[in-house]
Structures are given as C-alpha cells and as structure tokens.
Specification:
single chain; 1063 residues; alpha/beta; Creatine Amidinohydrolase, Chain A, domain 1; Creatine Amidinohydrolase; six-stranded mixed beta sheet; 33 helices; disordered N terminus
Length: 1063
C-alpha cells in the first residue's frame, strides 16, 4: 500500500472518510483479504485523484453567492429524499462563474452530514488540476461505492480478479459492468437503500465534446429505460449545446423537462451558504429565500408554461455579463415511466430601472399575497413536528420576511379564504399544487388513457381466436386485490386504476363493470370508448344498473351461439362454474385462447416481479410452518366419507395461503407482503411452485429442512396434467383458479372449505401481541399527523388531500418495523369523502376545507402486524347536521365496541346492532360494517365480516367501521380494529360461552363534532375513557414530539363538543 500512497500522494481523503485512514502518508485499508485489497488498490490507481467532495485538494471549498442558490439546494434536497420523485436525473445548468460548483459542494456536505444520507459517490471535475479524464469516471464512482456497500464490493472485487483490464475498457463497457449490470440486473443495492445518489460536477470540463455527450447519453438512457433503479443522478455543467441536446431532448412519449430559472445577485457578493441554510433550518420556518436588502421589494416568481426545450432561454455570456445576473438552471430529466406532469418554467427576474410599471404591479401582488392563505412548503411536509411552539405565534411568509414586516393574527382572514393556485414547485407535493380544484363529487385523474388503438388490436386478436366476447376480470392469477405492474391488464386496456372492475369487450362495444366504491375512479380513468356499468348495492342508486354483479350483466348481452373468451387463470372456479351453467342454457360456451389476448397486444409489458422471498420468523408468527403443515394434513385425513377417494390437498392459488402456511413473505405486489406462487400440500410431501430467482440460499435451506420441494412457477401445469400427485382426487376450495380445475377435470377434484383461510383468521397469542404493538406505533404516527394537520390549518395554510396523505406516510416511516402502507390511503375532504375508497390524485386533489369533515382511512404495515384505522376530523365549526350524524355514528361505533354476544353469532347479525342508532334519525349506509384483517398480511380480508353468516370466533379480527355519506356534500366514518375474545359474565344460562371485543386501534376520536346532549351517560363515560386510554398508552411514545403530546393531552381532557383553539 505504500507504493500506492507514494504514486498518488494526494488522494485527498479526510481522516476516516470512506473507511480509510491517512497515516504518514501510508493509506491503511480496513480489509484483511489480500485479493480484495489488491482489487481495491487497482480501483484507486485508476480513479481520478481528489475527485470526492471531501478531498483535501478542494479545501477550502468554494463559497456560494447569495440569492437563489439556497432555493436550488432546498429544492434538490426535497427531490433526493422524495420516494415519489418523478425523475431520476437532474441537470444543474448555468454559465461559468455563477456558482454551480458551490451549489454541488454545499449540497454534498449537507447530504453527507445527514443521518439519512443516501450519498453514494461524488466527482468534481477540474481542468486546472487535470481531473478531467472521462475514461476514469466510472472507475472513480465504483471505488466510492465499493467502500460503502458490501454486496457491491464483493461483486466488483470478483469482476476485477476475473478481468483486471476492466478498468481500461471503453466508457460504455465500464458503465455496463460497473453500473448497469450490478444495479439493474444483479439488483445488488436492494434492501440497502431506496435511493443512492451520484453527483457529477463540471461535466463540460472534461476532455472532448464527444466524450462529454457520450457519458451524458449513457446516464440519460439508464434513467429512461430503468426508471425504478435505485440510482439517481445529479449533474452540473455549463449549457454546452452537445450536453444540452442530451438532457433536454423530448421523445414522442416524453413531456418537456421542467426548468427552474433563478436570477442571481452579482457574484462578487459572497456568503456562506451552508451556515445560512443551517440557520434557516434551526428557525423551523417554511422554505425561505436568504436575507436581502429590506429596503428593496422582493419580487415573487411569475409562472409560465415552457415552450419546447429547444426554445428555453439560456442567455449568452455577453448578455449575462451586461446584466450582471448570471442564470442557474435546474432541469428535471423525465423518463418514459413518468408522464402526465405539466412542464413549467419558474422565473425570478431582477427589477431593471426602466421597469417601474412592472415592478409596481408585482409589489402590489406581493402585498396582496400577505392576506391570502399560504401554500404548504417543502419544510412543512418534510420537517418533523418535534418541537414545542406557541399557539399564538403567527406564521411568517416568505414575502413578509423579504420585506422586513411582521404578521399578526389580526391580519388573518376570519372567513374561509378562497382556494388558490400555488406557484410552489416541490417535487414531493408539487403535483397537488397548481392543480385544478374540484368542487363536485367526481374527481379528475391526471390523464385519461386513449385506448382506441389498444382496443383495435385486441379486437383483431379476438377475431383471429373466433370469440365474440372477451372477458377481463380484475385481479391476477392468485386472486390478489392489489396487483403487480405486470398484471395490470385491466388498467392497460381500460385506463381504470381501481382494484375492483371487470371488462367486457365485444366486436363493437366495451363495458367496464365496477362497484359503487370504484365508480368515480372508473369515470375518471377511462375515455369515451368505455361505458361504465355500476353493479351491486351502492350509496347512489341512480347510477346503479340494477344488476348484482358483472356476470348478471353479461348474461343480458349474450345471443345464442356466441363464444366467450377469457384467460381461465383469472376467474375463480366458483364464478366460472356458475357462469358456465348459464351459458349452456343460452347455447353459448367458453373459449380459452392459448395465450392471454391482452398480453399479445401489450407492448413494453413490465417484467414479472423478481424480488426475493424472505422468512417471516417465528417471533412474529408464533407458529412454525411445520406445525401448520401438520395441522393441514390432519384436517385432510379427517374429511368425511364423501372425500374418501382423495389422497392429497391443493389449498388454492391465493398468495395469502402460501405466505401464511410457509411463514414466507415477498415483495411482488403493492400494499401486501406476498409473492406469486402455487402451493401443493400432500399427505407426505409439499411442493412450492415459484420463480427460482426469488429464492436465496437462506430460503432454500429453510424449505429443505421442512421437506418442501421447490419447482419452477410454470411447472404447476405439467404437474397437474401428468397427475404427478398419484391417484385419487385433490381437494380445492371454490376460490381456486378455474384453470386448475379445468386441468384436473371434474373426475380429479372435490370442493372443500378453505381450511387455510380459516386457520389464518384465528390469531395466536404471538400474532395478537404483535398487532397490539403495531397499532400503538401506528396510533402514535396518526396522532402526530392530526396534531400537525390541525396546527397547519389553524395557521391558515392551504393543504391538499394529497399533501396530507404524504405527511402521514412521513410520520409512519419513522416508526419501528415500518415496512410500507397496508392499503391505499383515503384522504378525503368535502364531497370527495362521499366517494367510497377515494384516493386523491396528484393533480386533482382538493384542498382540505374548514366547512366539511375530513376523512383519513389508512394504515401502516409493520413486521409485527398490519393496521387499518379511520378517523373523521373537522377544522372549523361543524353544522348541526354534521354533528348529529357524527354523534349517531359514534353511538353505533360504541354499540359494536361494547357488544356482548353468545358463541355462534355471525358478523351479519351484529350489522343490525351497528345501524340501530343511525336508524333513529333515518340514516344508514349500504356498505359492510366490518371485515376480517390479517396479521402481517392484508389490512382487509373478505372473510367472516358483517356480510358473512359464519360465526365469529375468539382470536378473529373484526373492523368496526360505521359511516354516513351525504351525496355530493360530505361523509363521516369512524373505524377501529377489534379482536374477538371470550369474556366472563355473571351468568351464562345456555352454557355456550359469551364473546366480546378487545379494541386494538389507539387513536383518539375528535371531540368537537360530538353533540353531548344526544349521548347517554354510559356513552359519555365510554367516550372519555376511550380518549384517556389513548393518552395513557401513547404518551411514552410521543415524548420526542411535544406538539403531538400537547394535542393528545388536550384532546383527552377536553369537554365533549369543544373544539381546538383555532376554530
């Protein structure tokens, strides 16, 4: 290592940086393996010396001029840490001398110092120091990643030992082997970070225009073709034409890039950007510009739509020098994966002496803005609500700060301020700002899909297959509610993004059949090609077709002798058998094409998920998989004589069954921790059919120890066709994929209840204890969210439904064991709350108003359990109707919570108890009162809920969700999750035992909407005890958040019907 140090004495690393130590001047690496050391030494030798942001060659670092640089840094910080970002590549562009390198340096230092740093590598090019050889770029990046990430280190060391000359290969080959293959193909960074940031500064300083363009093209191509890659790129350079061409090109399917233009103050005025930004953070203020001359007016940026990228104004050098306002530009580079986002240029222009009329107009608008509600800033979304602040402290706006004025509460409007379109540009919540504010029930999605060409192609395939109708049910081959991208066939052909819908395509008509819960989303997502048919019981019968389900509607369309095509994997045996019995009477029949017809016309269809399966250990499950397999086999043997011919059991194809039975979890689909597989359970063997790429050595050994055979996912069909299980029949539940029963033929199967679902419903002690912990963590996050939301709205911020949903995710992310969301978030204000399962869209979300209730129905998924909670809040003065409806809902909620009932009672029987209080005022609701829920599984199972006649049993979860929805106006809902338990009473006359509930949800119920006079003394006592219990349980978990703790104490101690201080 001494030769290395002597040959490259200015490596430029601080003490301890990158896991190296400088020692007289020998570099000592903390590695013991000689081959690994030699491989890393080779990387060091071929890296650009002193390229890192913390290199001693760059000490002292450059300093920032004042002005827009801080705004750019804050914007970049939000982009980097926003998991919902819409681009993986950003380009900071500006003329020489305007401070691009200072921005990159300051940003690198801030990111490296952050506890949540995702900084992977930095590379600062320099012509003066001859740090400009592009041939060494990817080796330099690889060296920094090797030091930080062990899986990548092992991969690179192995590659170098196999081919040491890889460090001398072409740029394209190095990019492929050091970046593309390990990141995209090998997925070496999965599980380490959601995002890894690479920073390149001074690309234009490198040798050769062609080389500069080549490296820009390689990176752009990667972010376009692999938009979900964990790598994101931040690149700075002068706007040279050959670089600009790459970073601003717009393809046929791309939106123009978003350009952020900010004029700077003269570059000879310097300030320490790092210290100033840190001061702003400590002040806990919204995102603000740095201090300016208070005697001069500050001008807010006008918002204009950009022309195509070729026409974006990049000032020439002479023009910039003449005006002394050099321009920095940050450009978002879009990918094919991210669409539908409008492009806009945000420009802050300095006031020229001959622009008095324009300046007066802008100053007038600035003063007017002080009296309008404020849009939510990035700091408000991302910052922790963890410090105490006075309720009487008035918020400070950017414009007030720039003018040197102060605000008092008297300047705030006393009536509802008008909703305003914001010029805020945060990539986190920008999609909810600058949107169309909706006033009706219907929501407008980001963009409807034109399905004309897709339908034409599909009909051509239908004609070739000889079918008159083609059916496309929702879900996938495993009956999953939330499906992977590769299974979104319904969305592809219709544009509908909901989870419950069925498409019927004829030679000349198309129908999307859905339920009331998803009607609004169906209307929003589909174009004129589709007729929306609402079936089932709904809140608005005027839209209902009168048909029970899509099968009943289909039967009204059929004529004699027609063929109905479908993929048999996507319909259950139960539904297919019923439909087939009806088709026979119409002289119609099924036809099953050899391939899914939608797949044949789906260009660029996403690949099937390849994420690893992992073991959900016994500390969470309470039962090992061997125990579950043994119990299932005992059940098979105990089946009645009617099934004596059977020898084996195939539970069914649902992902919940495989995951629960084998104590395995996966990442194949959103919201649910499952994986695509089929599980065959025999009396003496078990076979798991899944993609081999999903199984690592740990899982392989785990399955082998349980004597569970692994076979390829597609091998199931040959296994069934060849009857490899032996003689006799298989037991299948009605929910099994129809393709399985078709392959078996009716001689080879017998229908039986779904035993796995029954066993899964009854939680053991370990699962219940885990769920209690999960609901405490989720409750703490929910309380933080409510406290934050009330505080912001009380301070007259404008907050959209989308922004509120984003903030709640932020609070949940900080909870121990958080994995993700357990379901789509319902964040609904006003008429949005009437739409069942409404989820706010980015560009159409409403502002949360102060006249109508706001519903938030959501839940976090934790390793110890999945949660589902709904609370309704009001941020102004509720009307008498709203208070009465809310109180009736609360009374119904209390009735279920307090219910005591004999063993054998079903959820359907409890439904009457839930609605009794509502009926007293002529109110009701048509949806179910309660549903089953899983452990670390689904937040909602469609098993023994309020619509089922199956008896409730101890250990089963049951959601207590009561609501009322006034069409076109507002909605109210309260939901808590309960667990059925045995209880002891003074008497038990029939001797069968009595059951009741234990409440798991731990979130206070807002007091201000309750009408105390309507409550009985017992209901008042329950209500006060409920909120006090939340305080007792959650207080230890909120000690770090004084604002949330103060809100919780106030809510628990508040008199019924009294509101918070800003009402």
């Amino acid at each position: 290592m001494s030769d290395l140090a002597n040959s490259s004495p200015t490596i430029g690393l601080f003490k301890g940086a990158h896991n190296f130590l400088l020692n007289n001047p020998t570099i000592v690496a903390n590695y013991t393996n000689q081959n690994e050391t030699n491989a890393i030494q080779l990387l060091v030798n071929f890296s650009l010396p002193g390229a890192e942001f913390d290199s001693s060659e760059r000490d002292p670092p450059p300093r920032c001029p004042p002005g827009a640089h801080l705004d750019i840094i804050q914007d970049l910080q939000l982009w980097v840490h926003n998991l919902l970002r819409e681009t993986s590549l950003r380009w900071v562009s500006g003329l020489a001398g305007v401070g691009k390198t200072a921005i990159m340096q300051t940003f690198s230092e801030l990111e490296a110092a952050s506890e949540e740093s995702i900084l992977g590598a930095t590379l600062f090019f320099s012509t003066a120091n001859k740090r400009n050889d592009l041939q060494r770029v990817f080796v330099t990046i690889a060296y920094q990643l090797v030091i930080k990430y062990l899986p990548y280190r092992k991969y690179v060391v192995k590659m170098i030992l196999h081919d040491p000359k890889v460090v001398q290969k072409s740029m394209a080959e190095q990019f492929k082997r050091f970046i593309l293959k390990p990141v995209v193909v090998e997925k070496l960074f999965e599980g380490l970070h959601e995002t890894i940031l690479i920073i390149l500064d001074g690309l234009d300083k490198c040798k050769g225009d062609r080389r500069q363009q080549e490296i820009a093209s390689l990176i752009r191509q990667m972010t376009t073709q692999h938009p979900t890659s964990p790598l994101i790129w931040l690149i700075a350079s002068c706007p040279e034409p050959h670089i600009k061409t790459v970073f601003t090109q717009v393809g046929a399917t791309r939106e123009p890039p978003v350009s952020l233009k900010l004029d700077q103050t003269p570059s000879d005025v310097e300030c320490d950007s790092h210290d100033k930004l840190q001061t702003n953070r400590e002040a806990n203020l919204p995102s603000i510009s740095p201090s300016v001359d208070h005697h001069k007016p500050s001008v807010p940026p006008p918002v204009t739509l950009t022309t195509p990228p070729s026409l974006i104004d990049f000032p020439s050098t002479s023009k910039a020098q003449e005006r002394r306002h050099p321009t920095d530009t940050v450009v978002d580079i879009p990918s094919e994966h991210h669409r539908g986002r409008g492009s806009r240029v945000i420009s802050t222009k300095g006031l020229e002496k001959n622009e008095k009329e324009v300046g007066a107009e802008l100053i007038g608008r600035l003063l007017h803005d002080n009296r309008r509600p404020r849009p939510l800033s990035d700091d408000d979304i991302d910052s922790d609500v963890s410090s105490e602040s006075s309720d009487d402290r008035a918020p400070i706006t950017n414009s007030q700060l720039n003018q040197g004025t102060s605000s008092t509460r008297a300047t705030l409007p006393t009536t509802k301020p008008p909703l305003m379109e914001s010029n805020f540009t945060s990539t986190l919540v920008g999609s909810a700002l600058g949107r169309q504010i909706q006033s009706g029930v219907e929501i407008i999605q980001d963009k409807t899909v034109d399905t004309t060409e897709r339908l034409a192609n599909l009909r051509a395939k239908m004609e070739g297959a000889g079918v008159h109708y083609y059916l496309l049910p929702s879900g996938d081959a495993h009956g999953t509610e939330y499906v992977a991208a590769s299974d979104k066939r319904l969305e592809f052909i219709t544009g509908f993004t909901g989870v419950k819908g069925d498409a019927i395509i004829t030679r000349d008509s198309t129908y999307l059949v859905t339920t009331p819960q998803h009607w609004a989303r169906a209307e929003a997502g589909t174009n004129k090609n589709w007729a929306i048919i609402q079936v089932g019981i709904g809140r608005d019968d005027s839209r209902n077709s009168g048909h029970k389900d899509w099968i009943e509607f289909l039967l009204t369309l059929l004529s004699k002798g027609q063929q109905i095509g479908l993929d048999a994997r996507f319909i259950s045996h139960e539904n297919a058998a019923f439909l087939n019995s009806k088709l026979i009477g119409l002289d119609c029949k099924f036809h099953f094409p050899s391939q899914n017809l939608v797949d044949l016309v789906w260009k660029n269809k996403p690949e099937r998920p390849r994420g690893l399966v992992y073991v959900h250990t016994i500390e969470y499950t309470g039962r090992d998989a061997s125990f579950k397999l043994r119990k299932l086999r005992e059940w098979i043997k105990a089946q009645p004589p009617a099934h004596m011919q059977r020898t084996e059991d195939l539970p069914h194809s649902k992902c919940t069954s495989e995951s629960w039975t084998l104590n395995l979890r996966g990442v194949d689909m959103p919201f649910n921790p499952f994986f695509h597989a089929y599980l065959f359970i025999g009396l003496d063997k078990a076979i798991l059919f899944l993609q081999s790429v999903k199984v690592n050595e740990v899982v392989a050994n785990y399955l082998e120890k349980m004597n569970v055979e692994r076979r390829n996912y597609a091998d199931l069909w040959s296994f069934l066709r060849k009857r490899e299980w032996g003689e006799g029949k298989l037991l299948i539940p009605p929910s099994t994929s129809y393709a399985i029963s078709l392959m078996l033929t009716h001689f080879r199967y017998a229908l039986a209840p779904n035993r796995v679902e029954y066993m899964m419903a009854l939680k053991n002690d370990t699962e219940l204890e885990g769920l209690r912990k999960a609901y405490i963590r989720d409750g703490a996050a929910f309380v933080q969210f409510i406290a934050w939301l009330e505080k912001k709205l009380g301070s007259r911020f404008d907050i959209s439904e989308w922004e509120a949903a984003c903030k709640l995710i932020k609070f949940r992310e900080k909870q121990k064991g958080f994995v993700g969301l357990a379901c789509e978030t319902v964040s609904a204000s006003g008429p949005s709350a009437v739409i069942p399962r409404y989820t706010p869209m980015k560009h159409s979300a409403r502002m949360i108003d102060r006249e109508t209730p706001y519903i938030n129905a959501s839940g976090g998924a934790y390793k110890v359990g999945s949660c589902s909670t709904t609370r309704t809040l009001h941020f102004g003065k509720p009307t008498p109707d709203q208070r009465e409806a809310y109180t009736r809902i609360l009374q119904s909620h209390i009735a279920i919570d307090n219910a005591v009932f004999p063993d054998g009672t079903s959820g359907h029987q409890l439904d009457t108890l839930a609605k009794t209080a509502l009926w007293k005022d002529g109110l009701s609701y048509s949806l179910g009162t309660g549903y089953e829920s899983g452990s670390f599984s689904t937040a909602r199972d469609w098993g023994r809920g309020s619509n089922s006649s199956a008896p409730l049993e101890a250990g089963q979860l049951f959601t207590n969700e009561i609501g009322f929805y006034l069409t076109g106006k507002w909605g109210i809902q309260i939901e808590s999750t309960l667990v059925v338990k045995s209880i002891l009473m003074k008497h038990d006359y029939n001797g069968n035992g009595l059951l009741g509930f234990e409440r798991l949800t731990c979130v206070p119920i807002q007091t201000r909407m309750v009408k105390e006079a309507m409550l009985t003394n017992g209901e008042k006592s329950w209500f006060k005890a409920h909120n006090q219990k939340c305080l007792d349980i959650l207080s230890p978990h909120l000690e770090h958040d004084k604002v949330a703790l103060k809100w919780l104490r106030r809510e628990a101690g508040r008199a019924i019907g009294v509101g918070w201080p800003w009402g």
